[in-house]
Amino acid sequence: LARQGKPLPGNMLARATSTVQRVLRWQPALGAAKAPRFASTAASSPLFDKILIANRGEIVGRVVRTARRMGIETVAVYSEADAHALHVRMADEAVCVGPAPSAQSYLNMDRIIQACKDTGAQAVHPGYGFLSENHIFQERLQAEGIKFIGPGTRAITAMGDKIESKKLAAEAGVHTVPGHLGVVHSDDEVKRIANEIGYPVMIKASAGGGGKGMRIAWNDEEAVEGFKLSTEEARSSFGDDRIFIEKFIVEPRHIEIQLVADAHGNVLTLPERECSIQRRNQKVIEESPSVLLTPETRAAMQAQAAALARAVDYQSAGTVEFLCDREQNFFFLEMNTRLQVEHPVTEYVTGLDLVELMIRVAAGEALPEDLIREPLPILGHAVEARVYAEDPFRGFLPSTGRLEQYIEPTAAVCGMPDDALRLDAGVVAGSEISMFYDPMIAKLVTHADDRPEALRRLRTALDAYVIRGVGHNIPFLRDLAAHPRHESGKISTAFIAEEYPSGFHGVALPERSEREMVATAVVMNALDTARDSDPSDRVANAPRPAFIGDVQYVTVRGGPDADEQDVVYRAYIVDAATGEDIAASIGDEEDVPEGAGYSVVVQRLPQATLDALNALDETDDRDEAMKLADVVASADATHVVKLGGVSWGPSTPLFLGSSSEMRVTQSEAADETEPRRAIVQHLDHAAEGYVLSSEGAERQVLVRSMRQQQLARWMLPKPEIDFSKVIVSPMPGKLVDVSVEEGEMVQQGQAVAVVEAMKMQNVLRAPKAGRIGRVAGVPGDTLVVDQVIVEFADEEDK
Fold first, then answer.
1. Deepest in the core among 140, 192, 206, 339, taking most CB within 10 A?
2. Are 97 and 47 contacting, i.e. CB atoms less than 8 angstroms apart?
3. What is the pLDDT of residues 20-31, one digit of tens each?
């Protein structure tokens, strides 16, 4: 219909996209059409006829894919809030297990066990989180004759208790972190023990995991506050508020060993994963292998992980986590008795399907001899980024709402091999991100022969990932993936705190990328104008000759620096061609998508030129513009940006093509740069241009005529809203505590309230000293974003 120039009825495009995404998810776990290495494509006779997946979101789809390939039927469970979730549609059957709160649904053992009985499920895969490390759940399933696809009670209880696990690790000959292996009960005891160990210390929940119930303290005051917050988080998340303290290793790296053990005494240890890029003890980017470890250190860590697994009679997939210092000394951190979120990077570098191995081990099979005979070779490098519904510009606060637009990156769009990109997601366009559950949207994984190429592919995939309707952390992930220190491999768990000490404020766009964005906006404006002037042709990308040479003044607004000035460019299209012409000019047809090509002159205007522009006689725009070109050419270099194979339409969120450029001065023209893939996201239309995103950097790009540019300086700025008189909830959540009263004087930085969102406690502090005029919130209130909790008294009332 589109190629015939006919309008698409209703939401056909959105529905077609959603359908294709669902179909693609039936591919095998590694994202390719082939079966994983060392794993059969199907069981000759199913190990289980049917399994229930006691979880939600992307992990359900991950287990479903493997189970379907093995010939096993699947059952999903869901809460009332998740009735229309993707994981419900992916499984063969689905059972509602209760209301939205996790305690009444996904943690409701009675209802989940009853769902097994009602559907005839013979085994339960717990995924991660929820009941995955709950020994009572495992025991109850066993009593009902239902197999738990995970370890036994002894391993879960021994490793689930962080205090006991450290004692067992030491007995098994595993290196452990110095600390106090007893439970602490009071503020005074916390301070005493912390001083005995020596600051800094880590305050941790004994039953903790996933970064919850953990705080670093550098002094007595932080130790007391950390003890309070960790206790509350542990009680809320795990129903167990026991806390212990250990030494915090300075400049540590978080490196973990994935293992799989069977009931026949075999333990398979796999190449390590590095998870040092963390924020608030939650992993953000993971990779395998680590750039730090030598083969000798890797072998030593694997040996200790295997020793610990044998000490607790471990059976299933599990992960032993270590902290490593710069000298490759390593210390046991904890053992996670479940499948890890970051397991895809291990599957990439080993070719194994860990979910299949878990199912086979649960059914009593022994691990294949060819896996345990000798260490597996490491197949290239893999990197995973966790995509969260959280706002990095507001302290990474959770974001809730509907995914109004959701388009996943594909290998074809990103210009990489089909098996180099994997995305595990539990959402589609229209899905709801709820305040009741973890805000993770997806896991984006790329693979290559080496680390630099894997990171480059990750950056490209992030550029092509379209999410609208909720805040998300893709700009932050994109900045991390391109950070020089990250690329060098010189990282630690303190990387984010050290490199972003005042938080994340946006991506600084390289000069070439900004020129590419300017050229993109000029082409988009030409295509938009052409369609508006010729309604009979709203699809074709061919430019109209009338627009070649038309001078535009392009203002780029926004950036990581709040005080950053607008940057103004003079730009115009000088040539247009077919996609084949552009391909021939840059010498690589395979890298150029089908579509039209444009050559755009881009000149950055210095302030003196802008001043001259404002002084021009408004009645003689064209002639004066040509005179101005001479001024610009003498003041700064000109760049010709070539955009080839352009694919874009007014309602299309991605502007795709290839990009190269050539620098031109009055005396010479430099060689043309190597072409690269150009991916620019069209986020929105602005009053005089577009809101665009490139390489994670969002900018407002205004495209004006000369007269519009001259008049723009008379526009009044938009007034800013003053939030200095109130303290509001920065996220949807529950008000846990208000620690001030009306009329009370508070100091800047003083804790005023605590808001719980997605099981994390967030302390709100006074932005200034002053008197409290009104307390609007009561503990227990359900809050929306920007809901007022406390108001300050007026200055005259002080």
1. 339
2. no
3. 544 444 333 333
Taking the C-alpha atoms of residue 368 and residue 357, their distance in angstroms, rounded to an integer, is 10
Token pair 């047809």 is found at: 589
DSSP state of 74: E
Question: Is residue 74 within 8 Å of 38, Cβ to Cβ?
Answer: no
Q: DSSP states of 103-151 as a string?
A: GGTTT-HHHHHHHHHHHT--EEE--SSTTTT-HHHHHHHHHTT-EESS-
Residue at 472: amino acid letter: H
Q: Measuring CA to CA, which residue among 66, 25, 26 is closest to residue 46?
A: 66
Outline where 409-472 has alpha helix (H): 411-414, 451-463
CB 348 within 8 A of CB 447: yes
Tell me the pTM: 0.79
The reported pLDDT for the residue numbered 416 is 96
Q: How far apart are CA 603 and CA 591, in angstroms?
A: 27
Query: What burial letters (b/e) apply to 340-350, b meaning 16+ CB within 10 Å?
Result: bbbbbbbbbbb
SS3 683: strand
334 noted as active-site residue? yes
Contacts of 438 (CB under 8 A, 6+ apart): 57, 129, 758, 759
Nearest to 115 by CA among 98, 95, 130, 132: 95
Report the distance separating Cα 44 and Cα 147, nearest Å.
Answer: 20
The CA-based angle 749-752-756, given to 5 degrees, is 115
pLDDT tens, residue by residue, 261-308: 999 999 999 999 999 999 988 999 999 999 999 999 999 999 999 999
**Any bridge partners for residue 255, and if so which?**
274, 322
| Matching residue, tokens 């526009």 | 715
Terminal alpha carbon distance of the chain:
68
For residue 289, cis peptide bond before it (omega within 30 degrees of 0): yes
Neighbours of 741 (CB within 10 A): 9
Angle at which helices 295-311 and 162-171 pack, to 10 degrees?
110
Other CB atoms within a 10 A radius of the CB of residue 313 amount to: 14
Under a CB-based contact definition with an 8 Å cutoff, are residues 692 and 652 in contact?
A: no
The one-letter code for the residue type at 711 is: L
Residue of 21, 11, 19 whose CA lies nearest to 409: 21
Question: Which one of the listed residues 334, 347, 514, 698 is annotated catalytic?
Answer: 334
What pairs with residue 761 in β-bridges? 756
The Cβ-side half-sphere exposure at 404, using a 13 Å CA radius, reads 10
Q: What distances in angstroms separate CA 417 from CA 24, 198, 377, 447, 640, one per listed residue?
A: 16, 51, 21, 10, 31
Contact 190, 221 (CB under 8 A): no
Under a CB-based contact definition with an 8 Å cutoff, are residues 286 and 340 in contact?
no
Place of tokens 């009071």: 186
**Which 8-state DSSP code applies to residue 506?**
-
* Length of the chain, in residues: 798
Taking the C-alpha atoms of residue 255 and residue 323, their distance in angstroms, rounded to an integer, is: 6
